Amino acid sequence: MRITDMEVIPVAHREPRLRNSWGGHSDVAARTILRLTTADGEVGIGETYGDQSDTLENVRRLVEGANPFERKPLELKLQDPMVYGAIDTALYDLIGRSLDEPVYNLLGGKVRDEVEFSGYLFYKQEDSNPDSAAVAGYEVLSAEDMVREAREFVELGGFETLKVKGGVLEPDEEVRTLELLAEEFGEDTPLRIDPNGTWSVETTVDIARRLRESDLSIEFLEDPVPTLNAHQRLKEYVDYPIATNMYVVDFDEIAPAVRREAVDVILSDHHYWGGLSGNVDLDRVARTFDLGVGMHSNSHLGVSMAAMAHVAAAMPTVRYACDSHYPWMVDDVIETPFTFEDGCITPEGPGLGVELDEDKLERARRRYEESDPLAYSSVGSMATEYASAMNDIGRSDWLPNKPRW
Fold first, then answer.
1. Which is the catalytic residue, given 296, 300, 310, 360?
2. Which of 43, 49, 114, 291 has a CA-to-CA distance to 129 between 20 and 30 Å?
3. E-assigned strands of 23-68?
């Protein structure tokens, strides 16, 4: 079996104006769909960040003509975990379809039937078209409005774990948000907050002390402070688990984090940990050092949603509900979009178990060509895009300087 064609399809989809510590999302976001085809007509698909289209086009000659089973030589030639990650996902989908096996079986077999996801709550601006929003099209810039948003999420997907994207409002207001969520859904509801590095060590210590004295069920604090060194200092005073998606994002960064005892939970992501196989490797390494594993999310479509569910089903060390932006998405490129039941998704096969809808794909491709979508993959490019989006809502003075509080 040989790959004869690699299609790189940049697409754009509508996005809500979600807020974070860097600024805000724009109205349109980009993604890249990858489709591999073999000589005998087998197909595999993948999805990655919107700014990876050109890079993927540049490596076409290394992929076309390759044996789909010979993944390691390709990974070594590419020397780019994000580029390889997109291809790795499509390769697993292709092989799974050809063998009539779900991807999770190719990764070693599932260790859970269902994959739990958190209800991922954001402070946000009002949507450009609020009446057609997938969820919470209104402005959310207070604790009370966040509770209203959370009610919609729980009604929509039955989520039992709630995550607040923080670093937007004053820390006291974000703590009040957690308190109101516990009041609404019960003090035993697992909560987590992610300020994206916008709090100082001193502020975080104070917040952690207040949370510990409360009856809230806080699972972990995610990247509350702005550097790995600050996380190490923080751990001297805070007994909550500390999770990261900002400072441990490749294998070379695990050893320094372990030596410093700076983090407790690594948030995986098949887009930049070297694909599905890289995430399974990460799970094994984390287990070796008794680190917890969760899963990071971005503004993804259904192909990535399927990949997240399959790889999480095969990762024993995933101790926490995974994150997902998917409930926020209005558009998709797959025939049958996912729905959540009790906050969970059950991965199915063969392969990733999803099919591209050619009409939806073409509409998304045209939108990419006709718009200026938000496209990023690194923290640096993300900060620039989000700061630019703040201009669109009249905040030209926005400076994502950290720590802010």
1. 296
2. 49
3. 23-24, 28-38, 43-49
Q: Provide the 8-state DSSP code for 321.
A: P
Q: Are residues 311 and 205 in the same domain?
A: yes
Closest CA to 90 of 380, 354, 337, 332: 354
Say if residue 373's pLDDT is above 90.
no
Q: Examine residue 379 and state whether it is found in any structural domain, yes or no.
A: no
Residue 203 and residue 127 in one domain: yes
Distance of alpha carbon 305 from its chain centroid, rounded?
9
296 classed as catalytic: yes
Give the DSSP H/E element, type plus range, for residue 283: helix 275-288
**pLDDT 10s digits, 1-53:** 999 999 999 999 999 999 999 888 888 999 999 999 999 999 999 999 998 99
Residues 56 and 204 in one domain: no
- Is 165 one of the annotated active-site residues of the chain? yes
Report the domain count for the chain.
2
Residue 396 included in any domain: no
β-bridge partners, 30: 12
Residue of 71, 94, 98, 6 whose CA lies nearest to 281? 71
Is this prediction's pTM over 0.85?
yes
Q: Residue 190 is encoded by which pair of tokens? A: 């697992």
Spatial contact of 220 and 251, defined as CB atoms under 8 Å apart: no
Residue in 110, 124, 163, 165 annotated catalytic: 165
pLDDT at 374 over 80: no
> Domain span at residue 72?
3-104+360-370
